[in-house]
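For the sake of transparency, this paper describes our internal protein records without simplification. The tokens are whole numbers drawn from a learned vocabulary of local backbone shapes. One such record is reproduced below, unchanged from the form in which we store it.

. . .
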Amino acid sequence: MHALQYELTLPADYDMGVVRDRVARVGQLLDDWGGLGLKAYLVRERGVHGSPVNQYAPFYLWNTMEGMNRFLWGGAFQGLVDDFGRPEARQWSGLAYAEGRASDAPAAFAVRRRVPVPAGPELSGPMEDAVRETERLAASDGAVLAAAAVDTRHWELVHFSLWEHDVPKAEGDVFQVLHLSAPGRDRLPRGRQW
């Protein structure tokens, strides 16, 4: 599993209806994308759920590098670049994935928490902690799924979870889910990924 996210931070007075309309128009284009586990079309609106910004920030879990590369270099990503400019796209290697207690429910909200990997020579401890946190989140009421991944360039962990209701039981940035494309969700590797 491989995670990818880019964030488009928009002006404070930006009409977020533009983003909502865009997702309504193009969201289904990845509903059958080969190699994609899932794409959550996410937005944050300034002043809602503590967000300081207006932001469009899709989050992806990929089953294959080929699928991700075809998305990035094969034209689909270019539409976003043409409309908004080229964003920085963060990537993380998968550590853990778990279906949640509400796995059959539609996802209404997402929570993303990025934290530095603690300093010190021992890496297995923080990685095992990330796996346990994924399992804990997935076992929570209202959890649709949970995942954890690591960026080894910046030594950053990302915890990502989807929720069926508007009071997610996770710490981090809260996003609204506008659409979920999940053609390969059933093929995302479960549990610890090493």
